[in-house]
Model the fold of this input.
Amino acid sequence: MPSVSTSAPSVRPSDFRFRCIACGDLSDTASQNFRCAYCEDLLEITYPDWKESRPDAVQLKSTWRNRRLSSSAIDLSGVWRFRDLLPALESDQQAITLREGNTPLYELPQCARITGVPQLFAKHQGMNPTGSFKDAGMTVAATFARRAGFRWVACASTGNTSASMAAYAARGGMRGLVLVPEGKISWSKLSQALDYGAVTCQLRTDFDGCLRLLQELVLRAPVYQLNSINPFRLEGQKALVFELLEQLDWQPPDHIIVPGGNLGNSSAIGKALVEMLELGLISRLPKLSVIQAEGANALVRTLREAAGKRLINVPAETRATAIRIGNPASWKKAVHVLEATEGACEQVTEVEIAQAKAEIGAEGIGCEPASAVTLAGLKKLVKQGFVKPGESVVLVLTGNLLKDPDFTIDFHRGELFKGTKDESASAALNALRRPPIVLDATLDAVIRTLEQAEKS
Ligand code: F0G
Done:
């Protein structure tokens, strides 16, 4: 059974190593469950060389800028363009890339007015090739799966990871095995995995059950796991921060706000920020805050009730299915980055998520429900005085609007909360609803509708 190693021919072992986040053990190889051989905690990737020959910040910025003029596949990737701070490849051709990254940073003027935070931006990771932030991590992890000689890659998913993995497996000539909770992921995401040719299993359990099963599977079968427990995924997801800071001319925002599910993305963003500070690419750390759905609030409870010392897992329930996770694998890494950046952790209700999603949509941008927790969370953080009106804020929108059309249609038709405890609270959202209007196909009917809309 192949293991994952740093010691391939022209990669010096010191280019990167695996480090256990709990006991600090360093190693050149990782087993297939990416757990420490001694204490079983999670691994992260570290770059021992940076101690002796620290990459030069000015040089890096100029190299990255110059690569934007290049037309080679590796430079057209918004992840590999920053490869100096990623695990080293033997050759540029080795990368499996779909030109991921290169995502826009939008201003949000209407949401800025709503929240009272004038400098409000959205980094839209939903503009990636498969429509979510997962592609940034997948390009790196899939590349290392192929380099290690695996024929099969596998993941448990609430939908986006599986869509992304299936695409990168196909591009890299590997087979993909997807484990998703039956009936709990959106059709759009499921359809992507099918279209990209993965073997897709809908398991009669939740996401946490799928992930548990995958952990056992990778120890029994020669499949490479591409969940965010895989530290190569998190290395790739760091690129969002490199690109964001470049877009902001290396001036860090005061706050970055990200949704929290399995907590890989917040961990990756935090790791990138800390590394950038150490390397002198930025002069101060933004506060990184994590927002969860109230019905899937394991990190919120872990921090409030156990001071971040042990995980409190929860039975997860939310219509933001991407973050319907009760037993987040990377909780310790997330606690660590919240401490390092002095960020906050908050929860938001289903009604608050739906409202925020409609408000982002009304900016002409749109996102999936899980991404909208960032705006809903920002409103709370402003109310608490944690975010001050004069401060700059970047919301990380993790998934594309088209990822979950059922949610959007149910919302606008007024059906999202029908028969739930939120039905009356959601009436306040009527002004945001734009239900489709069925009419006779006459000019009169359309003109009447136009006039009514103009008045309303
Ligand atoms: N937003 C979206 C759109 C997601 O798909 C996910 C996670 C998250 C936020 C949370 O990110 O897990 O790194 O904290 N989706 C995973 C999946 C679990 O399987 O697609 P996280």
Remarks:
- DSSP finds 17 helices and 15 strands in the chain.
